[in-house]
Amino acid sequence: MSGIEIQKVTAHIGARVSGVDISRPLDGETVAALREALNAHKALVFDDVDLDDATHQDFVRHFGDVTTAHPTVYSVAGAPNVLPVDSERGRAANHWHTDVTFVLNPPQATTLRSITLPPYGGETLIANAAAAYRRLPEPLRNLADTLWAEHTNDYDYAVPDEEIDERQAAQRAQFTSITYRTVHPVVRVHPLTGERGLFIGGFAQRIVGLSPGESREILDLLQAYVTRPENILRHRWSENQLVVFDNRITQHYAVDNYDGLPRRLHRVTVAGDVPAGVEGKESYSIEGDASHYTPVAA
């Protein structure tokens, strides 16, 4: 592990890692140091990486089993665990979300690797949901601790019907080809650090026990704390970069500000556990079997 360096990028989220070659197998001490850094900083940036799809997956497996690419969206050809995040396949994910929270055990971590970059724009924003929780006023924090929200894939990357062309309509149909509905705690307790974070984002559509209108007002109020500027890392991509972020306690947003120019990242995610709230109660599924994507550990 000699030579590894962790340098903060912002006060509340993000660190740049140097002094480690992630294209090679890592020893246990190095993996533990990276896990500790991820727990502390929520997002890690690796520059000048020498990875392909195979070695990208090898690196990710240091953190746990990998999922398949996505419950409904096609993978990279010949790489069933790699999701192409590609401007040619539709609109940017320009909404705040945590990856795949509509399934029972969403990924614990997400990795993104730069493949093709536009000459400007195309940043990825990553927000610290634990910092957001800590900044809630006490009455609102106490309320959030008691709430549960239903997450569904019906609303991912949704835009008004009149703005959708034929290709986008086909992509939406693919994304929702299996309907998923899962109930998660609004405040999730991180299984490694014990931190509490707001576990909401774009797939959270309804607060259990409340009307859609009431749900939207509360979710919007809580979401406003997640997306405060001081909680956000605005990552400007460079060639041969890999970013890993803790999907259990962050949200992210792909900025659609590059005039439709080519932009492609490859995503590999680490299989996660079933979320638990402040009283230890676990999430539960209402609809949709995602065992082909990520099995639930016994």
Alpha-beta classification: alpha+beta
SS summary, helix count:
6
Q: Which blocks of ≥5 consecutive residues have pLDDT under 50?
A: none
The largest sheet is: 7 strands, mixed
Straight-line N-to-C gap: 33 Å
Q: Numbering strands along the chain, what is their spatial order in the largest sheet? A: 1-2-3-13-5-15-4
Run of helices and strands:
EEHEHEEEHHEHEEEEHEEEEE
Strand content: 15-25%
Rg from Cα = 18 Å
Shape: globular
- How many distinct beta strands? 16
Description:
This protein is of the alpha+beta class and 298 residues long. The chain contains six helices and 16 strands. The strands form four sheets. Strands 1-2-3-13-5-15-4 form a seven-stranded mixed beta sheet, with helices on one face. A four-stranded antiparallel beta sheet has the order 11-7-8-16.
Summary of the model, kept short:
Helix content is 21%, strand content 25%. It is of the alpha+beta class.
Q: Which tags fit this structure?
A:
4-stranded antiparallel sheet, about 300 residues, alpha+beta, 7-stranded mixed sheet
Task: Draw up the topology in text.
Layout: E1 5-8, E2 15-18, H1 28-41, E3 43-46, H2 53-60, E4 83-86, E5 109-116, E6 124-128, H3 129-134, H4 138-146, E7 148-152, H5 166-175, E8 181-185, E9 187-189, E10 196-198, E11 204-207, H6 212-226, E12 232-235, E13 242-246, E14 250-254, E15 264-270, E16 284-287
Parallel strand pairs: 2-3
Antiparallel strand pairs: 1-2, 3-13, 4-15, 5-13, 5-15, 6-12, 6-14, 7-8, 7-11, 8-16, 9-10
